Amino acid sequence: MNAFEKIVAHERTTWSLAQVMGRLGWDQETMMPRGAADQRGEEMAALEEVLHARRTDPALGEWLEAAEAPDEKGAAILRHVRRNYQRNTRVPAALASELARVTSVAQGTWAEARARDDVAHFLPTLTRVIALKREEAAALAQNGDLYDALLNDYEPGTSGAEIGAMFARMRPRLVALREKVLAAPAPAALKGEYGRDGQLRLSRTLAEVFGYDFAKGRIDLAVHPFSSGSGADVRITTRVAEADPFNCFYSTIHEVGHACYEQNIDESYRFSPLGEGVSMGVHESQSRIYENQLGRSRAFTGWLHGQMGREFGDLGMDAEGFYRAVNRVQPGFIRTEADEVHYNLHIMMRFDIERALISGDLSPAELEAAWNDRFAQDFGVAVDRPSHGMLQDVHWSVGLFGYFPTYTLGNVYAGCLMKALRKDLVGIDTALAEGKPTVATDWLREKLQQHGGLREPRETIAHACGFEPDEGPLLDYLEAKFGDIYGV
């Protein structure tokens, strides 16, 4: 084999092992016995040692120096492998293993603290995670910005300064829209209890109509819904609250967006760096456009209204009232339950806080007070308990610093994609009203999903849309949609 072929063979095994590690993570959040947390931490650490050794193998560096790409696909593979090799060789093996062990155990500690509303129980573990992430960031940054080094793991090619500037442009229009909407009469909320079994049946139907392939996936329950895996094994989770069926349905649609991206990548890219979503921002664009622009549209909620009526009986409102209930705007503590108007403000707050934690400007001991103060400032409501505050998200317990801003970046990308999609698919609302969103998701598969990691993130969006992405289409969409619903 020549150098390029050796790299491809090496990556095939590494990718496969990484999928196994991902499956362990899925099991930990869905089916693992509670008492197995410490053992699972050791297992994850051991597998991370193997993966780190493969990712930093000196032979891989030699092959990269000698390799020549045979085509566009080969050039993209070399770009990913080279970037990953440079990253991984900067992080000591002992640090990578310790991070895997600590964050695996920390996830269980966080879940316990969240259930008990006990910040003190979580704080020592969080302090250790942050110290390890700062150590990792210092190794990666090589005298550069610590936060940018972590952000690059999730959204290559961007920086905290660029994200901050975009947020600064978005905030005035979001705040102005929120103030106008909250000053207007609120639509009626959906009332009643909706049984677990019925929600899960309809959740499965929603996954199917959006194109999720159950021959290569499954739905389970988790505290924090997520999607896991790639290629022929992509699993999602949802959650059920009997008084809030939208939580289950839109969590499912959201995770199906992630899952369909992975399921729809060109099969020839499998077992290579191209066989996964190119970045978390692009990934989030898929989950957000499925959930919001498609799933919360007036056309699709009209179909969903009929499905819920058949499953649960009279809902006490017509299709238009149901559409308004689905898109009801109200301040709330929980990011994952936030409406489209408030959601990005939740992300902006977390972005500022985690940058301060990584820079050292904010200590873990100061986090709860900082969170509560900022939340009251941004949302006008006092946090009533830690599970509604700093303990609500799993991300920091598992070391995902730099991840949060990709949620809003995904919303921005989704706004651009929907603008392009509506230009190409003039009759999209008719299909959505018939419960056929695959007309839109097929467009996404062709324009974006099948290409996996072939292009860089912004290039991926620009290629799909036909124009460079920016925040304008998202803000225009939000103002038009909620201006119509609330008459403002």
Automatic annotation (TrEMBL):
User: What InterPro entries does this protein map onto?
Assistant: Peptidase_M32_Taq
Query: Which residues, by range, are in coiled-coil regions?
Result: none
Q: Name one GO molecular function term.
A: metallocarboxypeptidase activity
Q: What is its EC number?
A: 3.4.17.19
Q: What keywords would UniProt list here?
A: Carboxypeptidase, Hydrolase, Metal-binding, Metalloprotease, Protease, Zinc
Ligand binding (Zn(2+)): 254, 258, 284
Enzyme active site? 255
Q: Which organism is it from?
A: Pararhodobacter aggregans
Instruction: List, separated by semicolons, the cofactors it needs.
Output: Zn(2+)
What the protein does comes down to: Broad specificity carboxypetidase that releases amino acids sequentially from the C-terminus, including neutral, aromatic, polar and basic residues.
List the protein's name.
Metal-dependent carboxypeptidase
The main enzyme category here is hydrolase
**Chemical reaction(s) catalysed:** Release of a C-terminal amino acid with broad specificity, except for -Pro
Fetch the PANTHER family from UniProt. CARBOXYPEPTIDASE 1, METAL-DEPENDENT CARBOXYPEPTIDASE
Task: Tell me the Gene Ontology biological-process terms attached to this UniProt entry.
Answer: proteolysis
Family named by the database record: Belongs to the peptidase M32 family.
Per UniProt, what is one Pfam family of this protein?
Answer: Peptidase_M32
Cofactor, how bound (note):
Binds 1 zinc ion per subunit.
